[in-house]
Amino acid sequence: MVRAGLTPERVTIAGAELADDVGLDQVTMSQVARRLGVKDASLYTHVRSLEDLRGRIALLAADEKTIRIAEATAGRAGKDALIAFANAWREYAHKHPGRYMATQTPIRIDPELAAKAPGPRRAVELTYGMLRGYGLAEPDLTDAVRLLRSTFHGFVALEAAGGFTQGRSPQQSWTRALDALHTLLEHWPPSREGDSS
After folding, report:
1. 24 DSSP assignment
2. Which of 57, 59, 162, 172 could pair with 117 as two cysteines, CB 3.0-4.6 Å apart?
């Protein structure tokens, strides 16, 4: 019999907490079941598979991260918005490393669940909205979004792996990186689309 109160949401949260504790790639259905005090088979009433669980964790994390970014950037523009956005991203990655990795890992997500999840869509809207404040339009907007995502994720991934242990503090480098991004976004080079050179 399924333990009273067990729901897909509770299973997802237990999986997300476990991912933060041991790493997303170490999460198993057995470990989640133990955390919830149920037998493995009970979980399959609520999630179809480990991949389904990981997809649910990714959607939960996308929602959580987007809410934090939206709160941090509300009423801000330009460099203030960029710094608030970046700091909220980094803080979420520090606080919830397993959940964060779920948002950066290719995971097959149930299309029906994905369609109902506001996080991924809202993240795109927030990012593009912030960058429009720099006067960017397509195709530059997409290129700038990819640059920001690469910079933010690359930094936090290297930081998490202990890649910044020598000399200057990671915080100092982070601050300078954001200064440099702001300068670049203010002076975005003209598009060379169609240039044959």
Report:
1. G
2. 59
Cβ partners under 8 Å of residue 96, min gap 6: 16, 20, 61, 64
Helix (H, G, I), strand (E, B) or coil at 111: helix
The answer, yes or no, to whether residue 195 has pLDDT greater than 80, is no
Read off the pTM: 0.90
Which token pair is 77? Answer: 């523009």
Q: Rounded CA gap, 152 and 33, in Å?
A: 34
pLDDT in tens, 25-67: 999 999 999 999 999 999 999 999 999 999 999 999 999 999 9
Tokens linked to 185: 């976004």
Question: Could you give the residue ranges of the DSSP H alpha helices within 23-169?
Answer: 29-36, 40-43, 50-73, 78-95, 97-104, 111-116, 118-132, 140-160
Name, in order, each residue with C-beta under 8 angstroms of 24's C-beta and a sequence gap of 6 or more. 54, 57, 98, 99, 101, 102, 105
Preceding peptide of 170 cis, ω within 30°: no
